Each structure stands twice: as C-alpha cells, then as structure tokens.
Amino acid sequence: MFSGLADAHRMMSDHEQIWDFTRIVNPRWRVVAKEILLAMLAPQYEAVLECAHALRAARSPRTCFNFLQRYTEWFNWLTEQGITALEDVTQEMCERYLEHYSWSVPVPGRPRRRLEPYSTVAHVRILKLIAQYEELLSSDSYESGFVPWRGKTATQVVGYKSKGPNLTPPVPDSMLQPLLATCLYLVNEVGPHLADLMDAARTSRADTTASGSVTLARLPALRQVLDLMRASGEPLPAVDDVQLRKRTTLEQEGPLKRLGWEALARTVGARRFGDDARRQMFPELTTLAAEVGFQPPLARQAAAIPRMGDGELIPWTLPLAEGDLLFMVDHAVTACLVVTCALSGMRTSELLEIEAGCRLPAVATPGGGRRFRLASRLIKGQKFGGVPDEWVVIEQVDRAVTLAERLVNRPAGEALFGTIDLAGRLKNLRGWLERTGNRERWGLPVIPRGPLNARMLRRTLSLAIAERPGGLLAAKIALKHISVATTEGYAARPGGSQRLFHAEIEEAEEAHHVQLTVQAFRDVQAGRMPAGPGARGLIEAFHHVDAQLKDAARTDPKILKDDRHLENLLRKQAKTLHVGPANFCWFRDPSKALCLSLAGTPNATKPLVGMCDSARCPQATHHPCHRPVWAGQATAIDVFIGSPRVAKGEKARLAPERDRALRVVAEIDAAQAAPGGGE
Question: Can you tell me the distance from the alpha carbon of 302 to that of 189, in angstroms, rounded to the nearest whole number?
C-alpha cells in the first residue's frame, strides 16, 4: 500500500510499507481499521476534524502499521470469542483481551513471562481509539457511550510511567575496552591497506569485464604466464574456503580442486575459462600444481604494520582469495560502524541515515586544529522522514566514515552502513577473527560475549563523559580534544539530536555527583575523613545531615531501608560538587573560589576546574581516590629532578611542586589514620 512512500526514513522497513487488511477475518472490521488509521495519518481532513475526541497530531505510517498489527489481533480475538459486532463488546471482554496479550508467546520448555507495561500499552490505546473516532466510523462501532476503561488513559491502565529512569545498561568496561581496541586497530592499521587492495581488485575486475573468456587462441599467452610461474616458483591462485566446499564434481574434486580459475584467467586479461581451453590446459596445470602448489592470489607481498601490544612489524594480512577479501571488507565496515556509534553517540535511526558522501568539509580552529562534521537526519520526535542534522565528531569517527566510504564504494546518497545490527555483526566479527587466526596474529584482545546495541553504546558514552573530570572521555583509548569537539557539537544545533544527547549527559552527571556525595558521607560516618582546605566545612555539612538522619530514624525508621532519603538530604550538597582530576570542588560561595580570584571573574557561576589549586582553595577537598594522582605527580617530578638533562633552575622550580604533592598525600593518609578512622 505504501511501497515507494516519499520521505520514508530507513528505520521503516519494506514490510512496514505493506498494510494487509485482509488478515482481519471480519470484513466489517477491516473498514473500521482503515478509517481509524487513515484518520490518524490525516488529522486535518474535514471529516476527522468533526470528531470531538480524534487525535489532532498526525501519526507516522510506521506508527499506524504497528496499530494495524494490534487491530488485527484485537478483531480476530473477538471473532474467536464469537463476537460479530462491536456493539457487543463489554469492559469485561477488554480486560480479558488485555490479560491474554500481557503474557509472552509460549515457547516450548520455557515458562511464559508477564510483559512490561510499555509492551502492552498499545493494546489499550487501539481499543480506546475506536470510541474516540465513533462519529467517523461507517461500518461498525461500540455501543453508544461505551469507552473502554472510561476515565483512565492507556498508560494509567497498564501502569506505564514514560519518564522513569533510563534502564539501558552501559557496555561494561571488560567488553568495551577490547571492542574499541580491536575496531580502532582495524580502522587505523588494517583499513587503509585493505581499501587500497579493494580499489585494485575493482580496477582489475573492471578491466576484464568485457574481455570474454580464455579461448584456444589465448592459450599461448597463458602458457607464457605459466612458464614465468614455474621459473619463479610462484604458486597458482587458490580459491577461498567457501568456494572450495562447493566443488563437488569429479573434475572439481581432482588435483585442481583448489585452483582459482577466474583469478588465473585474469592474468591474461580474461574473465573466465572457456570449456575447451579448460580441458586442454588441465594436464599442464596439474603438472604445474604439483611443482608450485596453490596460494590465494591477493596481497602476497603485504605491507608491514605494527602488531598491537609489542609493536612487532608483521604483514597486514596473509594472502587472500577474492572471497576472503570481501569477508574482510564486511568486517572492517563493522569496525567502522562500531567506532562511529561508540564515539559519536548517534542513535540507530541517525546511523541509518548516514549516506555515502556525508562528510562535510572540516573547519579549521584557532591553534591549528580541525573540527569534523557528518551530515545525517534527525528522526526521533520530528515530522515523518526527519529533518537534516549535523554532528560534530572527533577525528577517529571521521576516519572510520572515510574508510567505510572507500570500502563500500557506493554512489553518493546511498546508505553507508546498511543494517545496524551490532549484536549480529559483532558475533560475525568475533568468529571471523578467531577462525582466520587474525586476532592472535595481530595481537588483538579477546572480545567477551555479551549483549551490545547502539543504545548501550550511546548510554556508555553519556556516562563516560558525565563521570569524568571536565567531561573528558578519559576512556579506553587516547582521544584528542573529545570534550571540546562534542561540546561544540551540542551547541551547534540547539534543540537538535546532540542537544538531546547533552541532556542525557547532564542527567547522568547529576546522578553520579549524588553517588559521589553519598560515598563521601558514608566515609565520614565510618571515620574516613576528607583532607584539604575545604575538609572542615564539608565535615560540618555532613554532620548536620547525619543529625537529620538520626532524627528521622527516631520518628520514622522505615525511611532508612534504602538510600533514597539520604540522597534527598544530600542532593543540595551534590549540586555544588565539581569533579576535578585530583580533588572535589564544593562550589558553594564564588567569592571564596581561588580559581575565580586568579582569573578575575568573581561573579562566575561555575569554577574554572582547569585553574584549580586545590592545595590552597578553601572549597576543595581531597579523598582517598585522589591519592594515586598526587603520589603519581610526586613520582614523576622525582624522575625529572633526578635526570641530568634537566636544568638546575628547572629542578629548583619543580622541588616545591613535589613537596606540595607529598604534603597532600601525607594529609590524605593522616585523615584516614585519624582517631575513629576506619582500618
């Protein structure tokens, strides 16, 4: 019905564009479904405007297709119950229908489970819509005045709360680190050589496309090639393992079973072997094969790249057959997709809209840097088909997209990545690395098994930015200017997709600050005191909260069963927390902030964490988690002071810095060993 729909975005699959109303058994109810769904598509149509309770915002064809699925289930369920007219529907029937579809589909050997509310809310909505469009329906409708679950919304009926916490789990570090390390190695080290080889293979195929077959007339030229192979000991071209398994005829099972006939034909500018030429050359090729053997024809002299870990130079690939090359290209594109998804925060719908030619010109920035941009479309929350959007990305993402464009070689405007099934693609990538031995040869880590999708990677990036000082992705790889690039992206299109992503980061950052504040409070309760100039003020604030908790325990002990009450008491304190790389800044009074005094901006609303001197600022505290940073700084300075290459004047300047770091370490240790401190 909607095949060839204009502006259809790529999240809408082909089967969603075909609306099959004949699956509804009762012909009268097919008309009901058509009238309601068309009214949802065109809410400004005159007849729809006359419906007092009709929806006034247009729904997308994809949403209406999902509603058609629910209407098919509802109407056919009624037919199974012996109902032939909607006027016979009762509230009791609606409740039985909802209960029936509130459980998972039976699977042999597994118990049925109750579905979450968000999975069942649509079943209630479609029942209520029939009452909402009562004036529009021409073939059948509910009894006059009947509304399923009158007075309640669909979300209230099933108990669905749309603004709950984000339940998408992040990708655990144990999986994220080897995953990114593997994908970045494929993009940065293997990818450029693979793209060059793929370009050469395309050129070779193009040169032989119109050259026909190896005929008897071309055999002299072929024999010259074979003589050169015999003289140099060069092996005959071999086929890939997939083609090898398909060879079942007597001739194919013989001594030339591994021979790549098409690759051999290309050595004389032909596309394939003619039958007569194949039969005549069979004895000669059999003899030559016994002398030189077989080897895949591509990348026999592969360039060297450093192996991950030890840096030993190794060939970037073992010799490849054409089928092996295509497999490697597919897995390299998967690596490009993972890098783009993990380091940009794009949704699945936005990744699908990335097209060949999507890279916009890089913008130069002061200091010699560059900002990279990708063109995509924002789908979620927009009119059907979405709106153009831009993402400012880091260099690694731009490099991954550049490589993907070279590998797939599609015309501008076509989808670059195709499907975004990360779980399936990662499974194939993991299996290919192990099966071919490339993982061990390249020195790559093992990628653990586990769930993975674009939402999890987006959630991981949000948390990684929110939970690290200064918003840096102090992450699993060394990235340049990640905070600057992503922040610029958020500001580039206010209200755009990156601004929504920024809101997710702010929410995660707030939750993380509450978590850190609660932990600091628990440490004080256990006698593990903070150190630093702001320690006394923080301890006093925590003692005040502790007194409130004790009062609450006397009046209502039930509230102490979890940390929710404590989090509420500490939330105001948490809002003042700014996480530094080596301290916590409790920014309560701008006039006391040393960084603002040094910068000459005493009225600023946020501290300048990059200028923080936490050893002197009265609002800074040091905790046990900061000790390794200060101890590491003292150790690093000792190395410079002990080096004969460092000038004496520089050593004299570094000595006070080392003494300050050691003093902070001693203060942290002393606070932990104070009377009442925890062992």
Answer: 13
Cβ(252)–Cβ(278) below 8 Å:
no
Kindly report, residue by residue over 67-119, the tens digit of the pLDDT: 999 999 999 999 999 999 999 999 999 999 999 999 888 778 888 888 888 88
35 closest CA partner among 132, 122, 136, 141: 136
Please give the Cα distance from 670 to 529 (Å, whole number). 9
Residue pair 265/272 in contact (Cβ under 8 Å)? The answer is yes
CA–CA dist 142, 129 (Å, integer): 11
Q: Are strands 620-621 and 584-586 parallel, antiparallel or unpaired?
A: antiparallel
Distance CA 131, CA 143 (A): 9
Measured in whole angstroms, how far is the alpha carbon of residue 380 from the centre of its chain?
A: 16
Residue-wise pLDDT tens digits, 34-76: 999 999 999 999 999 988 899 998 888 889 999 999 999 999 9
User: Could you tell me if 345 and 461 are in contact, meaning their C-beta atoms sit under 8 angstroms apart?
Assistant: yes
Number of neighbours of residue 60 by Cβ within 10 angstroms:
19
Phi, psi of 350 (to 5 degrees): -75, -35
Distance CA 479, CA 472 (A): 9
Residues 6+ apart with CB under 8 A from 329: 194, 198, 407, 408
Q: Which two tokens stand for residue 202?
A: 């395309």
Residues 6+ apart with CB under 8 A from 178: 444, 445, 446, 447, 448
SS3 353: coil
Decide: 351 and 420 in contact? Cβ < 8 Å: yes
82-89 contacts: CB < 8 A, separation 24 or more? 84/26, 85/28, 85/140, 86/29, 86/32, 86/130, 86/140, 86/141, 86/142, 87/140, 87/141, 87/142, 87/143, 88/143, 89/142, 89/143, 89/146, 89/148
Output the pTM of the full model: 0.71
- Per DSSP, what are the bridge partners of residue 130? none
Dump pLDDT digits (tens) for 278-297: 888 888 898 898 999 999 99
Taking each continuous run of H as one helix and of E as one strand, the counts in the chain are 25, 12
Residue 504, CB-side half-sphere exposure with 13 Å CA sphere: 24
Torsion sign, CA atoms 482, 485, 491, 496: negative
The tokens describing 250, both together, are 């007597």
> What DSSP string runs through 607-635?
--GGG--TTT-TTEEB-GGGHHHHHHHHH
Q: CA-to-CA distance for 67 and 348, rounded, in angstroms?
A: 22
* Cβ within 8 Å of residue 176, ≥6 positions away: 342, 460, 476
CB 583 within 8 A of CB 621: yes
Q: At what angle do helices 91-100 and 117-132 cross, to 10 degrees?
A: 150
What is the per-residue DSSP string for 390-450? EEEE-HHHHHHHHHHHHHH-PPTTSBSS----HHHHHHHHHHHHHHHSHHHHHTPPP----
Written as one string, the DSSP assignment of 488-525 is HHHHHSTTSHHHHHHHHHHHHHHHHHHHHHHHHHHHHH
Which helix or strand (DSSP H or E) is residue 374 part of? strand 370-378
Which residue has 């880091």 as its token pair?
394
User: 161: pLDDT confidence band, cut at 50, 70 and 90?
Assistant: confident
Question: Which backbone phi and psi does 126 adopt, to 5 degrees?
Answer: -70, -30
